[in-house]
Design brief:
Distance between the termini: 53 Å
CATH topology: Transcription Regulator spoIIAA
Structural class: alpha/beta
Number of domains: 1
Radius of gyration: 16 Å
Order of helices and strands: EEHEHEHE
CATH architecture: 2-Layer Sandwich
Number of strands: 5
Oligomer: single chain
CATH superfamily: STAS domain
Largest sheet: 5 strands, mixed
Helix content: 25-40%
Shape: globular
Length: 123
């Protein structure tokens, strides 16, 4: 039996891998893992860099391999959308059907403020 120290939490830190590349349809930011309060800053760095650099193009956030997204991740998507909107640019989000991010984004009606798709071909 493992003895825990008083006041020390035993948390499994969420993990996230973020990569980015340019596609014909815009800057693609791919996230793999979980987007939560601890990992959202990592995604934010890549996403805001794409928002700032790819002027005139859309930005695509690939969440198709994300298992979980919380309010910090949702707020990040809204922030990116707000920065793109005045320039007439679009935020596209790629999802996998049946996963938690799809359910959360659809329940939150994110499809009314950004494009939700299931592949690059759908954009």
């Amino acid at each position: 039996m493992t003895k825990r120290l008083p006041g020390v939490l035993d948390l499994n830190a969420a993990q996230l891998t973020v990569s980015q590349r340019q596609e014909n349809k815009g800057a693609l930011i791919e996230a793999i893992g979980e987007v939560d309060l601890t990992t959202a800053p990592q995604l934010r760095e890549a996403l805001m860099a794409a928002v700032g650099v790819t002027e005139g193009h859309s930005v695509i956030v690939d969440l198709s391999r994300v298992d979980f997204i919380d309010s910090a991740g949702l707020a990040l998507l809204v922030e990116a959308r707000k920065k793109l909107s005045p320039q007439g640019r679009v935020l596209n989000v790629l999802l996998t059907s049946g996963r938690q991010p799809e359910r959360v984004l659809k329940l939150g009606r994110f499809d009314t403020i950004m494009t939700l798709a299931y592949s690059l071909n759908d954009l």
